[in-house]
Structures are given as structure tokens and as C-alpha cells.
Specification:
By secondary structure, this protein is α+β, with helices and mostly antiparallel strands. It has two domains: about 140 residues, Sandwich (Jelly Rolls); about 80 residues, Orthogonal Bundle (Arc Repressor Mutant, subunit A), CATH 1.10.10.10. The protein is built from eleven helices and ten strands. The structure holds zinc ion. The site of zinc ion has 6 residues, from helix 6.
Length: about 260
């Protein structure tokens, strides 16, 4: 297996958590890909043929698109997780589309092969069941957040979620994209970002938002980001520790393109 694929295995927390025979069972079936930003991994209604593991700073968003053409984020998934057939048993239709928001290396495995691997390994089944529980918790919390919390707090939740996943203070995200994620008009979002910037929490740049004060962002955000993160830490334990995040932090910083 090529060295870069080996490196990527360590750069997804779920894959990194696999040990011995479980890692050996899945490794030969993983294929390295590097889909560019905007790539649609699958559309809603399509059969999900692969499970994809974002690695390092890669981020995929699950989107719901409404009949009038608008869309909103339902979950943001990075190196802590996997996209597609996490819960199902392969080749079931997707309920959302999955779009690459931040390009990076990914590993993927065919759904049907994964089901066979899971069938043979209780630890792998347990790991995926725990991850599925966390992903559901993330979606449920976002559902409550979208209904109850003001836009500025929702915006901070999303920025903190992205910061966790790409491990870099510099978030490569445009106003257009963030507005689409939050389901608000771009002009409205720009006013919200200006307010957050005036508080010294972030710096808004061209195509980039820089995290200036993570602790104060957490204090200013609603409780939703903290709750989800705590759930991940409790349910996935060592898979989602601060050490795991720090490990990725180094990798992401090393690869970050300098403006
Ligand atoms: Zn909230």
C-alpha cells in the first residue's frame, strides 16, 4: 500500500481507533481519493455505494435541498467520522446529499464490502454503532439549535464545529458558503460576522475566517457545540480525545496553504 495511504489511515479517528485484525480486515479494501471542493459524493435518493472517511482537514457536509432550490446543512463531518451507510446496511438510498466543503485526502470502502467486514467483527460493529449514535446526536442538537437559538450563536456553533474538524485557526470558508450552511441571506450573514468580529472573536478575511479567541467563542456560543462534543467524547472515548484532535491539529497546520 502506498505510503500516503498509510498516512491517511492515521488521519481519520475512526480508522485510527481500529486495532490489529480489525485494521487488517479493512485496510486492503480502502481506496485513497482526493475529491476537489464541491464534489458531490452522493445525491439524495441515490444508492450509497461507498462509505467515505474524510482524513486530516477534509470536511464533507450533508445537505438537504428543498423544492425551491434552497439548501441547508444537516451535519458536518471531518476526520472524526465517516460519510454514507454509517447506519444502514449498504446500497440503501441516501436521505441527504453529501458535498465536499473542504478538499482533502479521503479513504473509501465499498458499502457491501464494509457490511461483510462488520458482520465478521464485533469491535467494528460496535465502533460504527457508537459513531452512528454520535452523528445522530449531532443532527438532533442542530435541529434544536436551528429552532431555538439566534443566528449569531448558530454561526459560532458552526465555526467551532469546523475548527474542531480542520484543526486550523484559519477556516477556508466564504460568506456565501456559510450563509448557505446556515440557511440565511448573505447580506444578513455579513452583518452577523461583523458583529462577531467587533467582539474580537474572529477576523473575517477574503474567503477565510480566522479564529482569534476560541475560549471566548465557546463562551459566546450556545451550549449546542459543547453538548455534541461532550457526547462524542463520552460515547467514542479515546477515539475523540483532545489528544486525537491535537494529533490532527499538527497535520492540518503542516498542510495549510499560506496566503
Ligand atoms: Zn444552539
Amino acid at each position: 500500500m502506498p505510503a500516503e495511504t498509510n498516512a491517511s489511515l492515521r488521519d481519520n479517528l475512526l480508522l485510527e481507533a481500529l486495532r490489529g485484525p480489525d485494521r487488517d480486515a479493512i485496510r486492503p479494501h480502502l481506496k485513497a481519493i482526493f475529491p476537489p471542493k464541491g464534489t458531490v459524493l452522493f445525491e439524495a435518493g441515490e444508492a450509497v455505494t461507498h462509505l467515505t472517511f474524510p482524513c486530516r482537514h477534509a470536511v464533507v457536509t450533508l445537505l438537504i435541498t428543498t423544492r425551491d432550490g434552497r439548501s441547508a446543512e444537516t451535519a458536518t463531518i471531518g476526520h472524526e467520522g465517516a460519510v454514507g451507510c454509517v447506519v444502514g446496511h449498504g446500497l440503501l438510498p441516501a436521505s441527504t446529499s453529501a458535498v465536499v466543503q473542504i478538499a482533502g485526502p479521503m479513504l473509501r470502502i465499498e458499502s457491501q464490502i464494509l457490511q461483510e467486514v462488520k458482520r465478521r467483527s464485533a469491535p467494528i460493529r460496535d465502533l460504527f454503532a457508537r459513531y452512528a449514535d454520535c452523528l445522530l446526536a449531532q443532527v438532533l442538537q442542530a435541529s434544536a439549535c436551528n429552532a431555538l437559538h439566534p443566528i449569531e450563536q448558530r454561526c459560532l456553533r458552526w465555526l467551532l464545529t469546523l475548527h474542531d474538524r480542520i484543526g486550523s485557526a484559519s477556516l477556508p470558508i466564504t460568506h456565501e458558503l456559510l450563509a448557505a450552511m446556515l440557511g440565511v441571506q448573505r447580506t444578513y450573514l455579513t452583518r452577523v460576522l461583523s458583529s462577531v468580529q467587533d467582539q474580537g472573536l474572529i477576523t473575517v478575511g477574503r474567503g477565510r475566517i480566522v479564529v482569534r479567541d476560541r475560549a471566548r467563542m465557546e463562551a459566546a456560543a450556545c451550549e449546542c457545540h459543547g453538548r455534541v462534543r461532550q457526547h462524542y467524547e463520552t460515547v467514542l472515548g479515546a477515539v475523540y480525545t483532545a489528544a486525537g484532535i491535537d494529533h490532527l491539529d499538527v497535520a492540518a497546520k503542516a498542510s495549510e496553504d499560506v496566503e
